Amino acid sequence: CIKANAKSCGECIQAGPNCGWCKKTDFLQEGEPTSARCDDLAALKSKGCPMEDIENPRGSKQVLEDREVTNRKIGTAEKLKPEAITQIQPQKLVLKLRVGEPQTFSLKFKRAEDYPIDLYYLMDLSYSMKDDLENVKSLGTALMVEMGKITSDFRIGFGSFVEKTVMPYISTTPAKLRNPCTGDQNCTSPFSYKNVLSLTSEGNKFNELVGKQHISGNLDSPEGGFDAIMQVAVCGEQIGWRNVTRLLVFSTDAGFHFAGDGKLGGIVLPNDGKCHLENNMYTMSHYYDYPSIAHLVQKLSENNIQTIFAVTEEFQAVYKELKNLIPKSAVGTLSSNSSNVIQLIVDAYNSLSSEVILENSKLPKGVTISYKSFCKNGVNDTQEDGRKCSNISIGDEVKFEINVTANECPKKGRNETIKIKPLGFTEEVEINLQFICECQCQSEGEPNSPACHEGNGTFECGACRCNEGRIGRLCECSTDEVNSEDMDAYCRRENSTEICSNNGECICGQCVCKKRENTNEVYSGKYCECDNFNCDRSNGLICGGNGICKCRVCECFPNFTGSACDCSLDTLPCMASNGQICNGRGTCECGTCNCTDPKFQGPTCEMCQTCLGVCAEHKDCVQCRAFDKGEKKETCSQECMHFNMTRVESRDKLPQPGQPDPLSHCKEKDVDDCWFYFTYSVNSNGEANVHVVETPECPSGPDIIPIVAGVVAGIVLIGLALLLIWKLLMIIHDRREFAKFEKEKMNAKWDTVS
What we know:
Layout: H1 9-13, E1 19-22, E2 38-40, H2 41-46, E3 54-55, E4 60-65, E5 88-89, E6 92-98, E7 103-110, E8 117-124, H3 130-136, H4 139-147, E9 154-161, H5 174-178, E10 193-200, H6 203-211, H7 225-234, H8 236-239, E11 245-252, E12 277-278, E13 281-282, H9 293-302, E14 305-311, H10 316-325, E15 329-333, H11 341-353, E16 356-360, E17 367-374, E18 380-382, E19 388-389, E20 397-406, E21 416-422, E22 429-436, E23 457-460, E24 463-466, E25 470-471, E26 477-478, H12 485-489, E27 504-507, E28 510-513, E29 523-524, E30 530-531, E31 537-538, E32 541-542, E33 547-550, E34 553-556, E35 560-561, E36 567-568, E37 586-589, E38 592-595, H13 614-627, H14 636-639, E39 643-648, E40 663-669, E41 675-682, E42 688-693, H15 704-747
Parallel strand pairs: 6-22, 8-9, 8-11, 11-14, 14-15, 39-42
Antiparallel strand pairs: 1-2, 1-3, 4-6, 5-7, 7-20, 9-10, 12-13, 16-19, 16-21, 17-18, 17-20, 21-22, 23-24, 25-26, 27-28, 29-30, 31-32, 33-34, 35-36, 37-38, 40-41, 41-42
C-alpha cells in the first residue's frame, strides 16, 4: 500500500484490496508525506487511526432477477412458450468491484424436459450427393416422429448449397450454367446457397419441397458450405429461428473452402458476416470471400446454433478437426446414401445436449473471470474445465461458482455489462459491473478549500488534493518554486548543512521524508531526523520486541523498562515455591532474582547446598508441639510457635498436592524411633501451616516364644539329621567289612589229616 505512493483516497483503494486511507486530519507526523495515509488496516490502527476514520470500501453483489429453473415433463406439463422456460439461474445481478477483491456468485443450470427444438437441414446438392437426395426427400415426417420422442415442439427447415458461381469453381459457359452435369443428367443451374424451406412444424411440407429439388454440379471437390453456414447463422428472420435449441445439420461428402480461397476467383473482400438473402438466394457469393473458421465460430456462438456435421467416412478426419475448433458441435458418419441420417441426428443431439459449456462476452479491460464447476457424481473442475459439465441428462441440475475480479479501474470509472450463457442456449446471465474507484469521503470534498493554502486545492478525506500546478501537503507552493535556494534553507537543522538530514527531499520548504524498501521502517520529524528502526536492540529485536521505537528512543510497554525495553518489571518469574519473591532471600531485578543471602542460589534463591530441608528444619518443633517430646521439648513455647498446627487422624487426611499454597510432605523419626508424618505450607499471607498425623507409627517389639521355639526346633532337627547321617555311614562301613570277611573266608586253604 505504501509503495503505491497514493496521493488520494481513490488511488489508495485501487492499490490493493487490503489498503485503507486514514482521513483523520491530524494523523500524519511531521515530515510524513500525504501518501503515508495509505496503508494496510492493521498498520493504520497501530499508528493511531480510529476505525471510523479509515476509508475501506468493500465490494458486494446484488441479485436483481432470480427466477427458479423450470420443472416440467413431456406430455404432462402445460404448454409453455419458449421464453417462459427457465434453465439458468440467476438471470440478472449487479457486482460492485474493488480492485483486487474478487466477487463470487453461484450459477445454476438445469436441462428442461420437453424443450423446443428448431432443426435446419443444410445439404450439399453437388452431383456426388444424388443418391443422398432421394433419401432426404422423406426425411421430414420420419424425423418429426423420431424427434417427437424428445420434444413436443419441433420445427424443421431445409437449405442447399453448391459453390460460388464464378470460375474456377464452376464452368461459366452458357450451356454448363444451364445444366452443369454431363451426359443425359438433368441438373439445375449452380448456385451458392438457397433457403428452400424456412423452419416449420409441417413435416409433409418438408417432404413436398425437398422432393422438388434437383442435383447441381461444380468443377472442384471442396464445396462452398461455409458461405451457406454463415447465411443460415445470420439470417435469423428468413430462416425463422426461435429462442430455443437451434440445431444446424450440415450434410456433405466433400471438403470445404475457407477464407483466402476466394482469391482463385478474383474475390478479395473478406466476408462481412451479414445477411444477403434475396428471394431466399445468397446474392453476394461473387463479391465476398468465404468466411474464416474463427468468423464462423463467432457467428454460430452469437446466434446460439449447435452444428452437426453429417459427413461420409472419407472426410471424418477433416471434420473432426473442424469440430475441435467449433464449440458445441458434433460429427457423425453419414452412410453413402444418407439412409442413417435420422439416427445420426438423434445421437448427435443427445451428445450435444448432454454437455453444458459456459462462455462469457468480451470482458472490459482489467477484468478477469474464473469458473469452478460442480457436476454430477461429485466431479469438480477449475480453470478451463471449470466452464463445463458433461453427461448431463434431462432434469439434471449442475452448479458453477464464478469469480469476477477487477485488476484496475476503467477510465472515468464507468459501469460495464458482461453476459454469461451456456453455449447453444439463448438464455443468459446479465451482470452489471460497477467499479469502486473513489472513496465515499471524496464526494464530501470541499473544492478550493481555505484549508488548502488559500483555496489551491480540494480538501477531501483529511488531505488536500492540489489543483494543477500546485504542490505541497497544503498546496502551498507552485511547481516553479520547488527547487529554489531559499526553500532549501527551511529544510536544514540548526548548525547543519544536510538537507532533511539526508533522509528526505525539500519540497516547498518542507521536508518530505524518504520511503524505505521495508514499508514498516519510517523516517519522520520536521527534518526527517527521526526514524523507528535505529533504537537499541535486544535478542535481535528493536526495543526487544517490548516497546515502540520513536525518534530513535524506545518507548516501552507497561512492565518493561531499559534502553532496549529488555528489563521486565514482572515479578512472576522471581516467585519461589513458597509464594515469596526470591524466597525472601534476594531482590527481583528485570525478572531475575539477585540472591542477597550467599548460602542461597538458583532462579528463585531456593537452592541451598548447606541448608537443612523443610522437613528436617521443622522436625523438632513439630515433634515437641504434637507429641511433647524431642530435643526442643523444654524450649518449645519459645522457639516453635511460628506456625499453625492442625492434627489429623490419618495420612489420608493430610492436605494433598494441587492446592494453591506451596506444600511439603514430610516423614521423620522421633526420639523413640517412631515415624511421624506432617505437611508444611505457607499461604499467600506468609502464614505457615502444619498438619500432623496425631498417632506416630512405632515398630512393635519381638515375639520371644516363637523365636525360642524356632531355635529349639532347629537344634533338634539338626541333631536328628546328624544322627541319621552317622547311622547311614556306619551301616555302609559294616557292610564293606562283612563283604571283605566273606571274601577272605572263601580264599582260605585248609589242610586235611587222613
